[in-house]
Design goal:
With 231 residues, this protein is mainly beta. It has 2 helices and 17 strands. It has one domain. It has a 7-stranded antiparallel sheet with strand order 1-2-13-12-14-10-11, with helices on one face. Strands 3-17-4-15-16 form a 5-stranded antiparallel sheet, covered by helices on one side.
């Protein structure tokens, strides 16, 4: 069910999902400017969502929403592509390896103009010139409406998970409120949120910052972070 829009989220529409297992924050890039965060002005990784909020507050602004935004190395640098304000800080990673990031296909979430997109990583180079921000993660949960065939509906590998899906240029950031498996997570985005393309961002460390919801998750140190800043 849709909730009344709190003033704090005037630029960032909030939807509390009908199914209580998930929380969804919907951001329309035509109305709110999504930003990526990695390091503070001193060059130190932010690591925590509230560290980003504190830094934004020093500039007289307010962080209205934030979420971890992709997998990272031990030094908190991105495993894959990271583009902020049109500048490529970490290159697209098409290598093979172990772990969720390398499950095929993996993908890229990016914003170009006033629209958000999720595409398979192999498709991104043709679109790279248009991206203002971009982050790579994996695996893809949905590709053109199809659930990743690697996912087992009966899998007992369950975690708190977060991801992002898009529909008509609008981004829907999703975090589970209880442990779920990959298939359940993807099916929710397809069937309940009506998304056709969706990207897994992470599990276990999955975190949400939302003052309007009273959320300031601090499960783990984080690498890339995505958020919305209001004046």
């Amino acid at each position: 069910m849709a909730m009344a829009l709190p003033p704090l989220l005037a630029a960032c529409a909030l939807v509390q999902a009908v199914q209580p297992r998930y929380t969804v924050v919907t951001v329309d890039p035509a109305r709110a400017r999504l930003q990526l965060f990695l390091k503070d002005p001193q060059g130190h990784p932010y690591k925590r969502l509230h560290h980003v909020a504190a830094d934004v507050a020093k500039r007289g602004k307010q962080l209205t929403f934030a979420m971890n935004a992709g997998m990272y190395h031990a030094d908190f640098s991105p495993v894959g592509l990271y583009v902020a304000d049109g500048i490529v800080h970490s290159a697209l990673n098409l290598e093979r390896g172990k772990g969720n990031f390398f499950l095929r296909p993996n993908g890229v979430f990016f914003v170009a103009g006033s629209a958000a997109h999720v595409v398979e990583s192999s498709e991104f180079p043709a679109l790279a010139g248009k991206a203002r921000i971009a982050t790579q993660s994996g695996p893809m949960l949905l590709t053109r409406g199809l659930i990743n065939p690697l996912f087992d509906p009966g899998s007992r590998s369950v975690h708190i998970r977060n991801g992002v899906c898009t529909t008509q240029g609008v981004a829907k950031f999703v975090i589970s409120n209880e442990p779920v498996n990959f298939y359940e997570f993807a099916r929710y985005m397809r069937d309940d949120l009506q998304c056709r393309d969706a990207l897994y961002l992470d599990g276990s460390v999955s975190s949400l910052y939302s003052p309007a919801l009273g959320r300031n998750d601090s499960r783990s140190d984080l690498g890339p972070i995505i958020g919305v800043v209001a004046d």
